[in-house]
Batch of 2 targets.
Target 1
Amino acid sequence: MGVKCGTLSGFSAEDLGVLAAEEAICRSGVAREKIDASIGANVYQFTAPGCQDIYFPRNVALRCHLNIETPGLLVQRICGSGFQTAICALQQIMLPDAVDDAKIVLCVGAETMSRTPRIDRSPRHSGASFWEFVEGGAAEDTILAGLNHDLAETAMMLTADEYGHQMGVTRRECDELAESSHARARAAYRGSHFNGGDMLRGVFAVDSKDLGGRPVYLAHDECVRNTSIETLEKLPGFTPNRLVSPGNASEISDGAGAVIVADRATAEAQGMPTRFEMMSYGVAGVDPRVMGRGPVPAIRLALAKAGLEQKDIGLFEINEAFAAQYMGVEKEMKLDRKIVNVNGGAVAIGHPLAATGTRLMVDLMYEMERRGVKYGCASACIGGGQGAAVVLRDTERD
């Protein structure tokens, strides 16, 4: 994950998606010609000149040299988009062959938030040439427009503030969570596989050239800082209850993630790793004014589908869109923070929208393996008042 306007900002979402997809294909050992479908997620469209993000999953498939017949599907569930790629893959695989015969699916989520454009809202002429526009259209910052929810007359940080307030969250708790998130992320990097350890094995080094032809090498999550409670508590609160500050909200960032989802029998026949199983998923709606509560019903639904209880889950990854939002979820579900976001969360790592769900699943799998955990759950709140969650099982712990 790259910090906004940082090392990865010179890449398009498609470029980052290709890098992640190539890594996933390599790690899985899948033969490219055996991949039946490409499912991609990208929320902010047209973020780089000359890059047509509407073709995102198809272009990733073509650039990764999959069969020309391999179709591409673009999905969008805002902050849950990365999860949705895997959910759609699971659905395709589970359908009868007469309906959909996909057995191996490439899932990619990518976002270059640094390049979200300002657009001119000038409409086309109604009585002139279709290719001419009315003068004087309003300029719109697309990232700010996305952070507002006009129908619900709110904004994402306001929903986190409101939910946190309802759950009795304090500003001090939000800043303590932010400090802990950064501290955990720093500790994980020190023990990462790049430094001779076995942590953060989902992270791979970017060694490529950006859109400008500049060589880029990045082998860590660039948003992570060395901060303190004393620094964080001095920052202004932006919301009515003063719970959300620049230091305890997720970082606007750039990044990508990818996974291969496959039918078990097919994967075994192809010699692919089959250690982790996607047991179930849950997607639920909540009041848009407390959007951050989304993980609560989503997790409960996913657990019910899997036949599990919350106490069965040995590790959670829950997106820290805002510290106030995460703290609300923690309090409502009575979560043990010792097993949640153990290597840091989005407040430290960043939240490139479409990539986040994929990042959460990948980090969860590798940490489950490292700690010997049988069941894990990843979840995120979603703008507009939704939540998504998936339950994963380490089959070697049976």
Note: The chain has a mean pLDDT of 96.
Target 2
Amino acid sequence: MLSNLTKNLVELERDQVLSEIKERLSQGEDPMRIFEECKRGMDLVGEKYKNKEYFLAELMLSGDLFREAMELIEPFLGEIKTEGNVKGKVILATIQGDIHDLGKNILATLLKLEGFEVYDLGVDVDPDIVVEKVKELQPDFLGFSALLTITFDPMKTVIDKLKEAGLRDKLKVMVGGGITTSLVKDYTGADFQTIDAMEGVQYCLETIKAKVVIKAKGGI
């Protein structure tokens, strides 16, 4: 059975969604539970979009509503995270030519909950800016979110430039979004592809775990 919060988010009832979140947080309810109900609502919105029950306008409105909801929830999520236990650094971006960021935002939130330090560069990001940020921050992961095919070449450009700069082997590159496939991963030169944010989180966790094991055995 769907919660009232989930139903209201699916129905794009902005005032009811934000009001309920504020009230439940003020009463000390587990923020993770509230987040899960919101995420469930977004999953259902995505299903409606795929089934053509919702269109781009509804998808964008739901994305805006989810962002507002997360602005309320995230400060409380931060209180339950373990300080000083950062698992790794992640740079996320929607590359040049695309302004869709819902999947990226969900991934960012989930990664933060797992203890990753996340740097979100936003949308329509120039490839050169991504490369400069990689040089500056030296992340463990670089993640691209894409819903348009015109992003494939800019993503490939970033990876090619990382190779030229001698940085490619120092991080893992992920591509995600409804338009991506394993063929896109191979074309761009990425390491991992998914359309599920949770799979992206699991990939990061497993990669970091493997790196720790290698170091423990005296590897690089």
Note: The chain has a mean pLDDT of 90.
